[in-house]
Design brief:
- The protein has helices at residues 135-138, 151-157, 161-165, 208-216, and strands spanning 7-13, 16-24, 30-35, 45-51, 56-58, 66-70, 88-92, 97-98, 104-106, 113-114, 117-123, 139-146, 149-150, 170-177, 187-191, 194-199, 226-228, 243-248, 252-260.
- With 262 residues, the protein is mostly beta strands.
- The protein has two domains: 7-56, SH3 type barrels, CATH 2.30.30.370; 66-260, Fumarylacetoacetase-like, C-terminal domain (Fumarylacetoacetate hydrolase, domain 2, Alpha-Beta Complex).
- Strands 1, 2, 3, 4, 5, 6, 7, 8, 11, 12, 14 and 17 form a twelve-stranded mixed sheet that branches. Strands 9-19-18-15-16 form a five-stranded mixed sheet, with no helix packed on it.
- A hairpin with a 5-residue loop joins strand 2 (16-24) and strand 3 (30-35).
């Protein structure tokens, strides 16, 4: 949907919160240029701007829904798993979404909460029944996400809503990059400095156009909606005091500390 590599963010500034376009000035410093709304909803520059160091980054979009895709990476993550014939999808509530540097809170109800680093697709226009050849026309850009999952509750419940739905279980950010080719969407997950996951789009069982086509045949996709495209091998439990980072050289770096529920 977009042809440049702009960075779209949501920021908390001295006067409130706003969508912003991140721009590098002639002095080399990055500034947050305020928008009247998200660009996919007609937002334009208001004339106000702040140094990036003077604002806090929030989750870059406010989705009506977060759609997750399970078991979408070929590899040794689950050797006994049957390759799905169709995408295995689930929903995370919008209330689980948090931004960069917000703590992931480990609930007392679970003894095993896992990280799952993922690339997330940001939908840019309302759409239904999109053919895969037109998928790029409805995608605004890409961001990073952590599909945090209470693994023990997932197994106990037999379905995934509670396990993936706790508050803070969907960190997203740091911003949305528009105009990237899907081949650039490599990622890795780092916990306390140790690389735990690495993934490339070539390892996805269902690529992004296939996911957009399949999901839009089921439900209307709205601007700002997120599609979490699946996690590569290496997901493991988090402990209080750790820091988990999902990063991509073409998107950015999503960092979140981990703490226990108080």
């Amino acid at each position: 949907m977009s042809t440049d590599h702009q960075r779209l963010a949501r920021v908390r500034h001295p006067g409130g919160c706003a969508y912003a376009r991140l721009e590098v000035g002639p002095d080399g410093d990055t500034r947050a240029v305020e928008l009247s709304g998200p660009p996919f909803a007609g937002g334009i520059a208001t004339g106000r701007q702040w140094p990036l160091s003077g604002v806090s980054l929030l989750a870059p979009v406010v989705p009506t829904k977060v759609i997750g895709v399970g078991r979408n990476y070929a590899g040794p993550a689950d050797p006994g798993a049957v390759r799905p014939a169709d995408p295995l999808v689930f929903l995370k509530p919008p209330s689980s979404v948090v931004g960069p540097d917000t703590p992931i809170v480990l609930p007392s109800a679970s003894a095993k909460v896992d990280f799952e680093g993922e690339v997330a697709v940001v939908i840019g226009r309302r759409c239904r029944r999109v053919d895969r050849t037109r998928a790029a026309q409805v995608v605004f850009g890409y961001t990073l996400a952590n599909d945090v999952t209470a693994r023990d509750l997932q197994h106990a419940d037999g379905q995934w809503t509670r396990a993936k739905g706790f508050d803070t279980f969907c960190p997203v950010g740091p911003w949305v990059r528009a105009g990237l080719p899907p081949a650039a969407l490599c990622l890795r997950t780092v916990v306390d400095g140790d690389v735990r996951q690495e993934g490339a789009p070539s390892a996805m069982i269902f690529d992004i156009p296939a996911l957009v086509q399949w999901l839009s045949a089921v439900m209307t996709l709205e601007p700002g909606d997120l599609i979490l495209t699946g996690t590569p091998a290496g997901s493991a439990a988090l402990r209080p005091g750790q820091t988990v980072v999902v990063e991509s050289p073409h998107i950015g770096r999503l960092r979140n500390p981990v703490r226990a529920e108080s």
